[in-house]
Write a structure and sequence with these properties.
The protein is of the alpha/beta class.
Length: 1298
């Protein structure tokens, strides 16, 4: 027992406190010593094989070894797979094996095998201790263990083995020992340090030239090669720690080289990097599917950091591309060069190497050489990423690539993921996407947020994966999600024993992809070369095991999922549970193999289509938007709109987007009553904000890909609020952008999207709401005479379906059978009415009936009863996600067309996505208009030609016949002039936009002035910015900004509201250039004095009208204070991210002291440091991700430079700690209050809820309204002005302000 306790105690001193103990008699001294040591955590398992993998997982997660205690005999042999994996992947592991004493070896003693050197070359250190005796100095035990742990935790990390023979009796029995064996232990016993302290040599010597292996000249050669690269690439292989990953990221940022991450690098699942100046190439593996691209993506210098790469295709490409230099940096000394291509092998940590390169290469010009190469890789990868996303979303079933994407998307930075071998790790490497909305701000460096990730890639076996993952959870002390195949799961079901009855064990969610066999083998060539029975029985190893019953036996929660929604929900539920879960996902080997092949073929074809656009994207000159202008229009119609609106005219806005190259593009924003939810005033408010936000922004060529690039461009420049742009506005913006690019290249919209010119067939449109059947038939006959071969009739306009049917019958009789007839009910009929109509026109050979029933849930029943061919229209418009649901429930082949309106769906990109989805189901897309002007009709005709060119199905007539309703157009040349016999020539379409009538953008209306208020011993000078209303009778809205802000913060909102309100914004004291406060007691003014001064200012500004007072943050507290003190001019108040103050007096004192300290740091430390530190606060987390953040910081510094003293005074005097608590006064509010908070601002969302409760307590809940803004944090006016404007406008209309 003495030696056992010495071993355990020394382990603890060396940081090895986690013991994995297998039951056994011979090892009982070690087990008892471990259990008796209070610093030790013990875990046990009956299966040594699982226990070894568990300890391996712990070492992966903790980056320090766990000790495995086992008995003698074959128990030790069961550890070999885990030892091999630990050795191959450099994971620290300590094995303490009990053994028979030497006299019982090789004599046939029970449970005895040769345990010396049992693990061969797979351990870093192997020592056979003598049996415990007083004849050997006890310090020998300690020094042996010290050496073992040093070898396990020094590069190359790995497993070590100490064999411990014990003689019987094994239990603790008192025996007399010679105390001389303890000689030399007095100092050790008096301290907490290990007996021998190993001091490793610094790895920096390898890089400064003092090492013998790598001379200074050799490292200079490496740095020279890196500096000379014109197509340099960094490949991040398997990396073990976040610090290592960040070092690689920083190096890529310094060199401005593209970075290709392996899934185990930590960067494959990292947060998006758009604003981090690093091009992370997530999907190079799929880019390589297209061999024609290999020459253009081949690097001349490869710098690989971390040796293992999951992707076989990438590995082969790197080996075959013949670079000038292939440099591998890895901490261990082992050979990892399967292609025999390495020119330089550097044994170093990633951090030391990165520091060396960044120190050596400081010239600012050399990174530019690789910029265009990096851009090319990035646009290719990004295009593939969007195509993968589309195909995974378009596939209704739960495929294995989709499983990988959903699982990887469910991981957060607070959790970890472990990947099983075979297909799970490959699918995640190929199909995962990065984290969303998670970014880490460390110091002044933007670094990606990453998740902990692990896998057994040393030997890449499928055994022991469950145990390793559970140990990984224990080592990293995080909840782990394990993605694993069914065979791998069956290999290690004993690992489930670790998940029950272990209090300190973090829970694990096991996602088991059960395709009832080895799915990866179905992707190999052998699958098609041998008899199916042989392949099934001997290769794919099919099984029929019930996983749910296995889980039940282990008392583990189990759920079977079979759809995307079920998997997402199961992952969400498991994440909030304190228990472990097994989520079994049903899959099919053959369907999975087919989908993998389809996906790869789709990506190959997609790259072929988009290559011309991508080439322009990286080679063309930058196109900067220098102006975005709008001009309202109104033109008369020949007859009433078929949507049911009573107007005989059409209104909207023309949009002009001007580029720095002198070319312009035109778009149209025309919400249609009865179709669009937004109206003209809504879009006018949005356009006023967007025109300013997009000015100065680069317009990239790749928006013409129609693959999500336009959406990404909007998000990059507008942040989350891009998702809130109205469909009609988004369509107009995209139209103008595409036309601007087309003008720049002297081509058409069709050509700029790389479409093929072709004629477009148009269907004639007939309104059947009036006239006899003969009258309508005559109209149809006239259209046929004009050359139309397809006619569309609007039905469900008459009293009875049979009356509509009579008209259709009359038309069919008049035009004959050669003309295609379509009818459109616009969802106006009940199921029984639709069936009645269908029966009445059964002999009319209708091409399709569009939207027959008023509820899409009734559509399957209609199709089943009538067998009529149907087209979808409003079902798609109202909710495009319903499209998939309808297709799933409808009989196959009965839905034959999808009517796609770009103006209703939010533009060409969204429309094309639905077109592709339709074509995937053999449904013909029909492009349709919303009664826009000829400008839009010309663009839609080109889009229709583009869609026809991409469709494998025969082309159809498109729904652009609304041109017949236009009496006098918004453009000089109408669309009707280029329609010839129902056909539009693609060559003639582009001429329409060039005849645009005079464009009249509104003039800016902003001005600024100062106003002085004398109050007691104070003199306040306020700078005021005004945006005047175009209305003569005007309501006034006054805006107050937050700390560090200015009146200009509100300008986008003010311009947006200026069509209805007179808007003014006030610079508060200490802010801006002109606002100030002076007086004998200047340092003592506060909220009450300032509110009084502002009240006087409002009297001056009101011009006799009532005022809506709106404030943000600090300005919100002022506005609330003034509203509660019943200023007679204030009609209503808007509180944006504001608070009634602190209830607790002591909390107010503390807060005032804190703000005084901040004010002092501002005075003494300067504005630059103060602003940087101010915006590092958690309150600004979402703002830091906003695309305007950098510009915001710059404007804050420019605005307040030299004004630090006054600004510090405002911070101190207007501290929330000095603000009177307003909670008790809330119920006294006599005017309506609107409280606006960002949904991501948890603190102020909670405050808003408390304010609602305070009002309801006094039965005054109706006086206060709360609006939570999607996609926004604390700084709502900057982060989401579009939704803020909607909330303000709705509120002011609601309280009677027009």
């Amino acid at each position: 027992m003495v030696w056992a306790r010495l071993l355990v105690d020394e382990c603890c001193r060396l940081g090895v406190t986690y013991f994995c103990v297998a039951p056994g008699s011979r090892s009982s001294p070690l087990a008892e010593a471990a259990a008796a040591n209070p610093r030790v955590t013990c875990i046990s398992c009956v299966d040594e094989r699982s226990l070894g993998f568990y300890a391996l997982g712990y070492g992966r997660g903790a980056r320090r070894p766990a000790a495995v205690v086992i008995t003698s005999g074959t128990a030790m042999s069961n550890l070999l797979p885990a030892v091999v994996e630990a050795s191959q992947d450099c994971v620290p592991l300590l094995i303490l094996s009990a053994d028979r004493p030497h006299e019982l070896r090789d004599v046939g003693a029970n449970q005895s095998i040769n345990q010396v050197k049992h693990f061969g070359s797979f351990v870093r250190f192997d020592f056979d201790l003598p049996p415990a005796t007083d004849e050997v100095p006890a310090r020998m035990v300690l020094t042996t263990l010290d050496t073992a742990i040093f070898r396990a935790t020094t590069d190359p990390y790995g497993p070590v083995h100490v064999n411990c023979p014990f003689r019987e009796p094994l239990e603790a029995v008192r025996t007399e020992w010679d105390l001389e064996c303890l000689e030399g232990l007095s100092q050790w016993m008096a301290s907490a340090s290990p007996f021998t302290t190993y001091i490793p040599s610094s790895t920096s010597s390898l890089l400064d030239g003092t090492a013998t292996l790598y001379t200074s000249s050799q490292m200079k050669e490496v740095s020279s090669l890196i500096a000379s690269a014109s197509r340099g690439v960094i490949v991040a292989g398997g990396l073990n720690q976040s610090q290592t990953t960040w070092a690689v990221f920083k190096l890529a940022k310094h060199l401005r080289w593209p970075l290709v991450p392996d899934v185990l690098s930590g960067l494959r699942l990292a947060s998006k990097e758009e604003d981090m100046d690093v091009k992370i190439i997530h999907n190079l593996d799929h880019v390589l599917l297209n061999p024609s691209l290999h020459p253009s993506v081949a690097p001349d210098i490869i710098l690989q950091i971390g040796s293992r790469i999951t992707s076989k295709r990438l590995s082969q490409f790197l080996q075959e591309c013949s670079p000038r230099a292939y440099i591998l940096v890895e901490e261990h000394p082992y050979r990892h060069d399967p292609g025999h291509r390495l020119t330089h092998r550097i044994k170093s940590s990633a951090g030391e190497f990165a520091r060396f390169v960044m120190k050596e290469l400081t010239e600012p010009e050399f990174p530019e050489r690789c910029h265009s190469y990096g851009m090319w890789l990035h646009v290719l990868s990004d295009t593939v990423r969007r195509e993968i996303l589309f195909q995974l979303q378009a596939e209704a079933t739960l495929t294995e690539p989709c499983i990988a994407r959903i699982v990887s998307s469910s991981i957060t930075t607070e959790s970890a993921v472990f990947l099983g071998n075979s297909m799970p790790i490959r699918d995640v490497d190929m199909y995962a996407d990065g984290l969303t909305d998670q970014q880490s701000l460390l110091g002044d460096q933007n670094l990606p947020a990453m998740v902990s990730i692990g896998a057994n890639r040393g030997a890449s076996g499928i055994d022991g994966v469950i145990s390793t993952a559970v140990g990984f959870a224990a080592g990293s002390n995080k909840r782990v999600t394990l993605l694993i195949g069914d065979l791998s799961f069956l290999h290690d079901t004993n690992g489930l024993m670790f998940l029950t009855g272990r209090e300190a064990q973090p829970p694990v969610t096991l996602v088991v992809v059960n395709n009832r066999g080895g799915g990866i083998f179905s992707l190999l060539p052998a699958a098609g070369l041998m008899p199916a029975v042989t392949f099934r029985n001997l290769i794919s190893s099919e099984h029929d095991v019930h996983l749910d019953k296995l889980c039940h036996a282990h008392r583990i929660n189990h759920i079977l999922v079979q759809s995307k929604a079920e998997l997402v929900r199961a992952l969400q539920d498991s994440r909030t549970s304190t228990s472990s879960w097994v989520i079994e996902v049903a899959s099919n080997i053959q369907k999975n193999a087919n989908f993998h092949r389809f996906l790869q073929q789709a990506i190959h074809c997609h790259l072929d289509r988009v290559l011309p656009v991508l080439s322009r994207h990286v080679s063309a000159d930058k196109k900067i938007i220098v102006a975005v202008e709008t001009s309202p229009y109104s033109f008369p119609l020949t007859s009433r709109l078929t949507t049911g609106a009573a107007e005989f005219y059409r209104q909207g806005f023309l949009l002009r987007l001007v580029l720095n190259n002198g070319f312009s593009g035109y778009g149209e924003v025309a919400p249609l009553p009865g179709v669009h939810e937004e109206d003209l005033l809504d879009v006018e408010m949005q356009l006023s904000i967007l025109c300013g936000k997009l000015t100065g922004v680069e317009l990239p060529e790749n928006v013409a890909l129609l693959d999500g690039s336009f959406s990404q461009w909007l998000r990059t420049n507008l942040g989350p609020q891009a998702e809130t742009i109205f469909p009609s506005v988004r369509c107009g913006l995209e139209m103008a952008a595409l036309e601007a690019l087309a003008a720049s290249h002297n081509c058409s919209l069709l050509s700029v999207c790389n479409g093929r010119p072709s004629d477009v067939s148009i269907c004639g449109l007939i309104d059947m709401s009036e006239g006899t059947p003969d009258d309508v038939a005559s109209v149809a006959e006239q259209l046929v005479h004009e050359g139309f071969t397809t006619l569309k009739m609007k039905v469900a306009r008459r009293a009875l379906p049979t009356q509509d049917a009579a008209v259709v019958v009359a038309v069919r009789q008049r035009v004959g059978r050669s003309i295609h007839l379509r009818v459109d009910a616009n969802r106006r009929w009940t199921l029984s009415q639709a069936v009645q109509f269908a029966e009445a026109v059964r002999e009319c050979d209708i091409q399709y009936l569009e939207e027959p029933v008023n509820n899409h849930a009734s559509l399957p029943a209609f199709l089943k009863q009538t067998q009529v061919r149907v087209a979808l229209d409003e079902t798609i418009d109202l909710n495009p996600s319903c499209f998939e649901k309808v297709l799933e429930s409808a009989p196959l082949g009965n839905i034959v067309a999808a009517v796609i309106k770009p103006g209703r769906l939010g533009g060409f990109e969204n429309a094309y996505m639905l077109c592709r989805l339709s074509l995937n189901h053999n449904i013909r897309p029909v492009i349709s208009a919303c009664f826009e002007s000829s400008l839009s009709l010309a663009a839609y005709a080109q889009f229709a030609a583009f869609v026809d060119g991409q469709s494998p199905l025969p082309s159809v007539a498109h729904g652009l016949g609304t041109y017949a309703w236009i009496e006098r157009d918004a453009v000089g040349r109408s669309f009707s002039s280029i329609v010839n016999k129902g056909i539009v020539s693609a060559g003639a379409v582009n001429a329409v936009a060039s005849t645009l009538l005079q464009f009249n953008p509104p003039k800016p209306r902003a001005r600024s002035f100062t106003s002085t208020v004398a109050l007691g011993g104070y003199c306040f000078t306020f700078r005021v910015v005004e945006v005047a209303s175009m209305l003569q009778e005007k309501q006034t809205v006054v805006f107050l900004h937050g700390f560090l802000g200015s009146a200009e913060d509100w300008l986008p909102v003010m311009h947006s509201l200026a069509s209805s309100f007179r808007c003014l914004a006030v610079d508060l004291p200490g802010h801006g250039r002109a606002s100030s406060v002076t007086g004998n007691l200047e340092a003592e003014w506060g909220l009450d004095v300032l509110s009084a001064a502002l009240s006087e200012l409002l009297e001056q500004l009101s011009e006799g009208s009532e005022i809506v007072l709106a404030g943000y943050s600090m300005g919100a507290r002022i506005a609330l204070y003034m509203a509660l003190h019943k200023h007679q001019k204030i009609r209503a108040a808007v509180i944006v991210s504001g608070s009634p103050g602190l209830r607790d007096k002591q909390a107010r004192i503390i807060r005032a002291t804190q703000d005084d300290s901040l004010a002092l740091s501002l005075r003494l430390g300067g504005l630059d440091n103060f602003v940087v530190n101010w915006y590092k606060r958690p309150l600004w987390k979402s703002l830091r991700r906003h695309p305007d953040f950098k510009n915001l910081i710059a404007s804050r510094l420019a605005m307040h430079k030299g004004n630090e003293v006054a600004l510090a005074g405002a911070l101190s005097q207007l501290s929330v700690g000095r603000q009177p608590c307003l909670w008790e006064q809330l119920h006294t509010a006599s005017i309506p209050l609107l409280v606006v908070v960002g949904k991501a601002d948890e603190k102020f969302v909670s405050i808003a809820s408390e304010m609602v409760y305070a009002f309801k307590t006094f039965d005054k809940g109706s006086a206060l309204k709360v609006v939570r803004i999607d996609g926004s944090g604390h700084c709502v006016p900057i982060e989401s002005p579009l939704l803020l404007v909607q909330a303000l406008h709705s509120f002011m209309l609601g309280v009677g302000l027009n």
